[in-house]
Design a protein that fits this description.
Length: about 475
């Protein structure tokens, strides 16, 4: 029993140690992944473009390196060796025919058979060595081969005239001056390969851009349609197109939209029917109460009937949510001024302000109903109200502050539930159906936004409405 427990403890310790080692090994990987995630582009089009371009650039870089390192260097070395062998032959002939004093014969042989221009110069010192380019393979290979095969003092000029290479060999009684075409000493057509490769790659990249753009456009249209639908706007002229997978996603979006619209329509129709039936009964109650006089009991019943009518209106508005209204350009600053006047009628101290461009594409009647509910609640429980509107490049933000009793943090989510009312913080005798905040959140979420409840600088409740634009 002791052996088993000790073996188990040893295994657990090994697992812990191995996990620590694994975490230490994976730590650089996670850091690199996080660094790349923060710096790489987020758009699908740019990422797909990088997936195409980066491998092509890497492949071309490898091909160019291999070509320059193997083919270009090898061909240049072979050509340089051939030229040096020819120069060595001319030097040998010159030393052999020196006794006959016939340098013209050597010149003719070098020009006709070897393609070299040879001239005999006085035995003067060779010119100073010119600075050599680090990447000049011609100078490197020629110098190496001349030193190995001829073994005499020499001077090379590979940068003076771009078309020719000048080589001088110092002999005992004269200097030989050789002029060869530069194409004889290195692979002069290597740039054609690079030009063709780069030009072909550019053409292929342009074609890939066009085809990739056509493949990304349906995804962008689907995203725009989903965003417009989430903001409560009409999705016009949208049809599935593109690749099969994109078409499936678009068809699923259209089916979802139809199901949501059908659900809202059925709910509205059902509740409209229920409201109509209940209103019929309440109308009969009101007619019967008119024949009963003005006793305190009758007044109480009339008050109950009026409250039931108001609750039916609120419930029907909550269920409908202004789903049929189209989003249009609305002056939000003017809307806040009108709501300020309506709130002042009930005796509250109200002030409103707006920063930024007030013209916003929203459902005007629904958004006004939302703000009216919020301001009505603030006027019901407080005496001072401050309304502030602000527009950013991406959001429309409206805050409503009051100096009322506020809402405890643990109840701020519950108050959005239909018919939920607070017993401790709110007064039951103030009226209301418990649907004000529910209707407000329903309208704002239909715009793709959200409603937040916070503590107000005035000491009461701050309601912050945020809607994307």
């Amino acid at each position: 029993m002791t052996d088993r427990s000790s073996w188990r403890d040893f295994s657990i310790s090994r697992v812990i140690k191995s996990s620590r080692v694994l975490q230490f090994i994976l730590k650089p990987y996670h850091w690199l992944a996080s660094w790349l995630h923060n710096r790489l582009p987020k758009g699908l089009y740019v990422r797909a473009l990088l997936i195409i371009v980066i491998p092509m650039v890497l492949l071309q870089s490898v091909l160019v390196f291999v070509f320059m390192e193997r083919h270009y260097a090898l061909v240049t070395r072979r050509l340089s060796e051939a030229v040096v062998r020819e120069i060595a032959s001319v030097v040998e002939m010159t030393e052999t025919f020196r006794a006959q004093d016939d340098p013209e014969k050597v010149k003719r042989i070098a020009a006709s058979a070897l393609g070299l221009s040879v001239s005999v110069m006085p035995p003067e010192p060779l010119p100073p060595r010119q600075p050599r380019d680090f990447f000049d393979l011609v100078d490197l290979y020629l110098s190496r081969e001349i030193a190995a095969r001829i073994g005499k003092p020499f001077w090379i000029d590979t940068i003076g005239d771009g078309r020719f290479v000048e080589i001088r060999i110092k002999l005992e009684n004269e200097n030989l001056r050789f002029i060869a075409r530069r194409s004889q000493t290195y692979a002069s057509n290597s740039h054609i390969f690079i030009v063709w490769m780069v030009a072909t790659s550019l053409i292929l990249i342009v074609m890939a851009l066009l085809f990739l753009r056509n493949q990304i456009r349906p995804i962008e249209k689907l995203a725009d349609a989903a965003e417009d639908f989430g903001k409560g706007r009409q999705v016009a002229r949208f049809r599935p197109h593109g690749a099969r997978e994109v078409r499936r996603a678009a068809m699923a979006f259209l089916d979802m939209r139809r199901r949501i619209e059908r659900h809202v329509e059925q709910r509205t129709t059902m509740l409209a029917g229920v409201s109509h039936d209940l209103r019929t009964i309440l109308t009969r109650f009101s007619l019967q109460l008119t024949f009963l006089g003005d006793s305190p009991e009758v007044k109480a019943l009339r008050k109950d009937v009026e409250e039931m009518n108001r609750m039916l209106d609120d419930y029907l508005a909550f269920s409908k949510g202004y789903g049929d209204e189209e989003a249009v350009e609305t002056d939000v600053a003017l809307m806040l001024e009108e709501l300020e006047i309506e709130a002042e009628v009930v005796g509250a101290d109200v002030a409103s302000s707006f920063d930024g461009d007030p013209l916003v594409v929203i459902k005007g009647r629904a958004f006004r109903r939302c703000l009216l509910n919020l301001i009505t609640n603030a006027a019901r429980y407080g005496s001072t109200i401050r309304i502030k509107g602000h527009r950013t490049p991406d959001w429309l933000i409206v805050t409503v502050d009051d100096d009322g009793p506020g809402i405890p943090p643990e109840e701020r989510e519950n108050v959005f539930r239909p018919f939920h009312r607070l017993d401790t913080a709110r007064n039951q005798d103030t009226g209301g159906s418990g649907l004000g905040l529910s209707i407000a959140r329903d309208i704002i979420r239909a715009h793709g936004g959200e409603v937040f409840l916070r503590e107000s600088p005035l000491g009461g409740l701050r309601v912050r409405v945020r809607v994307p634009i």
